[in-house]
């Protein structure tokens, strides 16, 4: 299992999956490299994530 800190991937309040922070991009690349080496024949991968804990549930649902 890999766990990333909530602030490492994206800027607060920005939903864009095309704009991860540099540290987030580096962390995701490291995870990918590790998983690719361990599970070469895997056909699927489950990723679970959540919005930040700072704003209201309604606002986060929109993200």
* Helix percentage: 40-55%
Tell me about the biggest sheet? none
Measured between the Cα atoms of the first and last residue, the distance is 24 Å
Gross morphology is elongated
Give the uncertain stretches in residue-range form: none
Give the helix/strand class: mainly alpha
N-to-C order of helices and strands: HHH
**Strand elements, count:** 0
Mean pLDDT: 76
As a whole number of angstroms, the C-alpha radius of gyration is: 14 Å
Strand content: under 5%
Number of helices: 3
Give a summary of the structure in a few sentences.
With 63 residues, the chain is mostly helical.
Explained architecture:
With 63 residues, the protein is an all-alpha fold. It is built from three helices and no strands. The chain has helices spanning 6-9, 22-38, 57-62. The longest helix is centred in the middle third of the chain and has 17 residues, at 22-38. The two termini are 24 Å apart.
Summarize the topology.
Layout: H1 6-9, H2 22-38, H3 57-62
Please tag this protein with its features.
mainly alpha, Outer membrane protein OmpA-like peptidoglycan-associated protein, OmpA-like, membrane, OmpA-like_sf
């Amino acid at each position: 299992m890999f766990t990333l800190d909530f602030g490492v991937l994206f800027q607060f309040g920005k939903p864009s999956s095309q704009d991860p922070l540099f540290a987030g991009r580096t962390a995701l690349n490291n995870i990918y490299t590790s998983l690719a080496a361990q599970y070469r024949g895997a056909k699927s991968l489950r990723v679970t994530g959540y919005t930040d804990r700072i704003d209201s549930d309604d606002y986060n649902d929109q993200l």
